[in-house]
Amino acid sequence: VGGPDAPFRSVIDNVRIIPGPIPDSEPAGPPILPSPDQLYVSSSAALCWGTPGSELLITTNTMYSHEYQLVTVLDSDPETGLITLTEGLPLYKGPDGLPISTMANDPRQAVEVALLNRPVVFEADDSPDDDLMGGHLIFYNTPNVIQHLEGVEIVNFGQAGRLGRYPVHFHLCEGTPSSIKKNVVRQSNQRCYVVHGSQNVTLEENVAFDNFGHCYMTEDGSEHSNSFVRNLGAHTKKAKRLIESDRGETDDSPGIFWMTNMQNSFEGNVMAGREHYCLLFEVRT
Prior knowledge:
Keywords: Signal. It contains one helix and 26 strands. It is mainly β. The protein has a six-stranded parallel sheet, with no helix packed on it. The longest helix has 7 residues, at about 45-50.
């Protein structure tokens, strides 16, 4: 987010805004925004996100996870990268009245902006008996089948307290290369993207927002050679109901990234707002 003459974050496809080159000295003065109901992104993002009604997440710029902002697109100009919102964007928020951190006023800690909508939506109905009981998606023991999931919005998935019931779950798929790209998991009742007993899985340019428990995770320590690339996690909350197991689950002090094996690769991921940990390595053998 920034002005037309200020450095701003470039976009990786339709997922989020990532840091561009950091200048030697930070620009002085307040954030450069044309008006409270407008913001600048790259031309490619404005083209992709410009559909009226698109919902954007602006991550928190304070120490408090819940101070994210959800805004709705009214119109966009791909030539200039200008996006007009349906309502004004508060320029200052939080108990200390902090300004929104942009590439114009804080290039090292500018907020992230993510598109929350996808053309295909998997949404679970609310359970009349349990508001933490949603859907779940599992790739179950497919060692010889390459799996690919891309461009899906997954809403109200995960079943709190139930082992293996997560929004996206690779389970005992061994070493077949598979990919999970450009998806959104939101309002998850239990975890987000889980890799268990599987290798060579690539999770790239995904978004996770407003979940309970660990978010991006490897499960028991056997997982290796998986790649986590340019993913965004925001507003991760402690679990309301723990899975019963003999090893002791720790989702009541969750990490946006919770990893049990160091033999995986991590590149360009962003953790933006959580109740406990951003990145937690809890190595298990």
